[in-house]
UniProtKB/TrEMBL annotation:
NCBIfam families: rSAM_link_UDG. This is Putative DNA modification/repair radical SAM protein. Gene3D superfamilies: Aldolase class I. It comes from Sphingomonas guangdongensis. The keyword Chloroplast does not apply. GO terms for molecular function: catalytic activity; iron-sulfur cluster binding; metal ion binding. The lineage of its organism: Bacteria, Pseudomonadati, Pseudomonadota, Alphaproteobacteria, Sphingomonadales. The keyword Lyase does not apply. Its cofactor is [4Fe-4S] cluster. Keywords: Iron, Iron-sulfur, Metal-binding, S-adenosyl-L-methionine. InterPro entries: Aldolase_TIM, DNA_rSAM_put, Endo/Exo/Phosphatase_dom_1, rSAM, rSAM_sf, RuvA_2-like.
Length: 414
């Protein structure tokens, strides 16, 4: 490997990290350096470029420790057989970069992943050393997210959880068959076993802290994972079902979806074209329905096409479900339960909360609902209000053209 300076390494390893989508920083413990002790904070400090799921604006230094790897996963640009320029940071270089970027107000945390070098244990030791040095040697109190390695010694993973806010282990692909075909060196049993160990450690530490204030924190922001979409033959229904299982079994904070992107000198077993990015977006919307709208996985899967198992790309999953189950509508905004209101296309969680609060004092009209949503035209066919009943719309045999978003030509210099 050619000798590179830190700037050249940063260019290579920051670019290589862009394929990992799981780097939000919600749910972490609050830490601050106010009072003159330590450095950094997990609160909204610095020049921010992204929004976490809880609404905070954040920016993270997102890099790989190295893009060298002893594995040969077909879908990975950093695989052993890939002809890419390689680079590697030392643990000390990552620590200095993180502190330097934080002091310049560029970032408020670190997301660190890596290819596997020498062995899983050796690589995990290097990742842990970065987090340890930041926390213990420099009293860094900002956010740290470490990508952990399923094959590593459990004790190393446990040490990572003592220093990091969030840990993540990628399941990579939604089906066992897809993983065996595209990443034969990885084993779903080891991956899920490591995720189960993380879940147990997180829960045990949370219970201990309820009894003893001095008990150490362990990954207070929980764990997350990522699935690649479109590299294998898995349908959207398969992916939704896998995500639901992961949420239920391992209490994940997030499942991230990353649309497969064709890579240079790709393996012959990979598709030649990337899936539509809208497919990734629809999967995130489906994920939102399960996490915040009380949809069951089977209900989300029911919004997909029966023959192909794919969610429609031209309308969102919630609208697709409502059009498929029109017998559930319209619902009366003045009488319907929260569960039924959450299934109305165009009504979000906050809008439903406002409806439930407002109708205690007076009966709601269509104008009242219109003030709570972006598009009342999308809502009207599915609700009954004090002055509104969708008689003509409800009787239409084909409602989709009325409620589907209109295609528009965007202006380049609007």
């Amino acid at each position: 490997m050619a000798q590179l300076d830190v700037r050249e390494k940063l260019g290579i390893l920051a670019d290589a990290a862009k394929y990992d989508a799981s780097c939000a920083s919600s749910g972490t413990a609050k830490r601050t350096s106010v009072g003159g002790k330590g450095i950094g904070s997990t609160e909204g400090m610095g020049i921010c470029h992204a929004y976490a799921p809880d609404g905070r604006c954040i920016s993270l230094l997102k890099i790989l420790l190295t893009n060298s790897c002893i594995f040969d996963c077909h879908y990975c640009i950093n695989r052993k057989s890939s002809n890419v320029r390689r680079a590697r940071f030392t643990a000390e270089e990552v620590v200095k970069l993180t502190l330097s970027f934080y002091r310049r107000n560029y970032i408020e945390g670190l997301f660190l992943s890596s290819g596997i070098i020498r062995s899983s244990n050796y690589t995990m030791e290097q990742l842990v050393e970065v987090a340890r040095s930041l926390r213990e040697d420099h009293d860094f109190r900002g956010y740290i997210h470490l990508k952990t390695i399923p094959d590593a010694d459990p004790e190393l993973v446990h040490q990572a959880g003592l220093y990091a806010d969030r840990l993540s282990i990628n399941v990579e692909l939604p089906t066992v068959g897809g993983l065996k075909r595209l990443a034969p060196e990885k084993d779903i049993g080891r991956i899920e076993g490591a995720m189960g160990d993380l879940k147990s450690s997180i829960e045990d530490t949370a219970d201990a802290r309820k009894k003893y204030k001095a008990a150490p924190r362990f990954a207070p922001a929980g764990q997350s994972t990522q699935m690649i979409v479109g590299a294998d033959a898995a349908t959207d229904s398969d992916i939704v079902g896998k995500a639901a299982t992961l949420y239920d079994r391992f209490r994940l904070r997030r499942v991230y979806y990353s649309a497969f992107s064709p890579i240079p000198e790709a393996s012959s077993v990979l598709p030649l074209q990337r899936p539509p990015l809208m497919r990734e977006h629809r999967l995130y919307q489906s994920d939102w329905l399960m996490r915040f709208y009380d949809y069951q996985p089977a209900e989300v899967a029911a919004a997909a096409d029966t023959a192909t198992g794919m969610l429609p790309l031209d309308i969102d999953p919630k609208l697709a479900w409502a059009l498929k189950f029109r017998e559930r509508f319209p619902v009366d905004v003045n009488r319907a339960t929260r569960e039924d209101l959450l299934r109305v296309p165009g009504l979000g969680v906050k809008a439903v909360k406002s409806i439930l609060a407002s109708r205690k004092w007076r009966r709601l009209r269509l104008d009242d609902v219109a003030r709570l949503t972006v598009s009342v035209a999308k809502v009207r066919p599915f609700i009954v209000a004090e002055d509104w009943r969708p008689t003509l719309l409800a009787d239409r045999a084909e409602l989709r053209p009325v409620v589907a978003p209109k295609r528009e030509q965007m202006e380049l210099f609007a």
